[in-house]
Amino acid sequence: MKMERRRSFPAVALPLLAVWALVMVVPCFAGDPYAYFDWDVSFITAAPLGVKQQVIGINGQFPGPVVNVTTNWNVVVNVLNDLDEPLLITWNGIQQRKNSWQDGVLGTNCPIPSGWNWTYQFQVKDQIGSFFYFPSTGFQRAAGGYGGVIVNNRDVIAVPFDKPHGDITLFVGDWKALDDGKDLGMPDGVLMNGKGPYRYNKTLVPDGIDYETIHVHPGKTYRFRVHNVGISTSLNFRIQNHNMLLVETEGSYTVQQNYTNLDIHVGQSYSFLVTMDQNASSDYYIVASARFVNESRWSRVTGVAILHYSNSKGKASGPLPDPPNDFYDKSFSMNQARSIRWNLSAGAARPNPQGSFRYGSINVSQVYVLKNKPPAVIDGKRRATLNGISYSPPETPPRLADEYKLKGVYTLDFPSRPLKGAPKIGRSLIDGTYRGFMEIIFQNNDTKMQTYHMDGYAFFVVGMDYGEWTEESRGTYNKGDGVARCSTQVFPGAWTAILVSLDNVGIWNVRAQNLDSWYLGQEVYVRVVNPENTNKTELPIPDNALYCGRLQKYQNEQTPHHKTASSASATYRTSGLLLLMLLLVGIA
């Protein structure tokens, strides 16, 4: 289906009759409003750390716009790829119920070619909470292209706290100018909403860097939605002299607890309520600093924004608020993670309380221990593995191959325990049982913190500890109020266990959120198929599906819509991304 570029509109909720033209291409969910977005994704010039460089912007914005919708709304995003390379956008934490066709990863979608546009169309079915989107191909997320997704409660569902005075989204993450072709190493800094640090230290922070300022009113309470959209660095987040009341993470309301700081790992999202209860003698620091590193060496790798009261009497000055003093206490961060629990009495997307789903009483039908190790050289290239297999995406997405009954695209034999012998490159998928209950143990035998994510689902984080997981480790599981989320940290030399109900048909990505590990092959897909021949558990392939690989012959041509200046200005940034990718695999 040839998709013509459309005029840009702001997001708007439309009644069903007003979007009759869209019904031809959008699956119909009767009575639920539509939100329509028109995005131009291109390289733009920005100077997040004071030096001009090319970043990926959306409609000229870096970070991109926030998608603000409500439970069960239909979201239609028309994406023009104005980059000079293929593009996919994935929706981190949006479950795409019955609709893995819209997931935006290489296991389900062919990339949008340069100069083409493609329309994502999905429903945020039975979800609430704070999420984000980002480009999923290659190393593009390291160049930007990310933005927020807010899914509000319907009016008929009570929120377990008073309505805040304002809603603030903060994207934090490590940033490295990749144009010099060096290996990852230490990042150049930490950004907040695409901006560098406030000049809290004249030695560490050069003059002339633009920084983020959050404007607030005294006595008011604000909701902060904080997302770690970085490459590979865990960050400790804190607001000087202010408590942060944790209320939600990745679609689940949590037991409400105050934190003075919280570790936020790559790919994770949290919501806090923060009350402006200080005397405003000056502005206050908002800080995101690197964790699990040599903090004296990494002192310059600190993101600093400003919290500015409307009655503030002066600029922030003096030292930053201290990070956790736990260099010799490796249990501090893990205990903090364990303290995040599910609010059993709160409703969420549905009227019944979250805790009415008693996950601890369900029998497990499948168990997978997914072990990662430090990267290894396989066939002359540096690769990362799970269970000894480094995933290599086939040219034809497995979900598309299934639709056309192609053989030989992938194998359905991913091992439930680590393979013995030398690691290998493969295209092996996990054979998930529809309506089964799967236990996954992530065993991190690397020396770096990892975060793992699962598309299509929210899973229950039931346990984590240092050492090697054993069958006896189940005795430590939290079977009552483990939080449901989509991304979980796994500490180096430790394990994390999750439980997930496989009730969403499709092929779903399980990946390392750390961008270097993911790019080097640390991912797998879970294939969930309903054995009954029915059209009620999965939506049909969309009319505008893109085709590639062995199915390229089905693809209709599109007239490119390039802005000629875009690809030319992007050359420097793209070459830097390419050099970095070559270095990662050891062939540059």
Automatic annotation (TrEMBL):
This is Multicopper oxidase. Its cofactor is Cu cation. The keyword Transferase does not apply. It is found in: Cell membrane. Pfam families: Cu-oxidase, Cu-oxidase_2, Cu-oxidase_3. Residues 44-154, 181-312, 396-532 form the Plastocyanin-like domain. Belongs to the multicopper oxidase family. Residues 1-30 form the signal peptide. GO terms for cellular component: plasma membrane; side of membrane. It comes from the Eukaryota. It is a lipid-anchor; GPI-anchor.
